[in-house]
Write a structure and sequence with these properties.
Oligomer: single chain
Number of strands: 16
Shape: globular
Amino acid sequence: MRVLYLLNISNPDRLSADSGWIFADLLAPALMDAGAEVTVAAPAAAGDERCGFRQTKVPGTKYRARFSADIDELTALVRAERPDVVVANQVEEAPAVRTALLEAGSDALVAGYCHYLPFSFTGGGQLLLDPSMNDAGLGLPVLLAFAAGLAACDRVMVHSSTAASWVSAAAARMTVDLSEKLRIVPAPRDERLVRDPATARPTCGAGGAMGVYNHRLYAHYGTAQFIDLARNLTASGAVGLRVMDLFGKRRAARQGLDNSPERMRDELAALPHVEVVSDRGDRVRYRNLLAGARFGIAPFRPGCPWSMSVIDCQGMGLPVIAPRLGWLAEHIDPELCFTTTAEAVALAQRLATDDEFHAVHAKRAHASTTDFTPNLVAARYLEAVS
């Protein structure tokens, strides 16, 4: 099977902070091991030396990535690569891919992978536009483009049961039938970030037991709620927090659209018993920063269909506490989910001080990632597009 893997990269200056690129970098070699031929078309190469690479331009903004597909470029790619499957990791690009296949005379299957959903649903079934995709009222056009992409795909892959439910509900509202198309294929864990919790020896920082928050600091990730939790959690001085600055210095164009990561980072850095640290794009340093923590904290993001950062913690044997939201409520152990700040503080303090409770949940956290090895995910991926 020849796979042409189309990948938009939103963080070319810090690939370690781009979940789509990490996914491709982990998955492409595993697909090759399973017998597929893979060419990645992206602004930066992913995978190992066996994978083909076609360099594409970096979109100026996240909206250009959704509305400015180059059909001439896509047609040339299809003619050069002669794929059996074209994977559109930007689902909104699927109609352009379908057009390019038509012009190139190719009958390749079009598969869309829903790395990011521009919407979520409330418990009452109300559809909410994702605020990060709603600058200047563009949320609805993005949603309609997403629906058009779903309609153009032969297969639609999503991370989780929560994502499958949301995508199906949104598609049904826009009369797009996904009944034979939808497949659940989780993202792979990074085997460099796997540690047997029985061997873990977490260290303590100046604030005592250390919790880690390794998520993007966008406002739409619920970072303001995390800041409120951080104030309450560190008030006693018994627990310290390590906050990851994943982006570093971002391009001016990205800051112009949303400067909340910089603002939130500065606000967190000013709190007592909170350290803001950078992995500097170094995966070994990132592992060491996680290894020194006692537990992780999930983001307060309502539209969360998956979190690679949560899986990173769990693979390292770190229990993760989480608000009861979206995929988090599906995946995280119910004993570690909370609704109020007081519940979150109590859980964190118990993980920090109760060794038996921590050991049980460290083992469960690690076990929850065992089905996400790259080889297992690659097998599910190829089954989905066959």
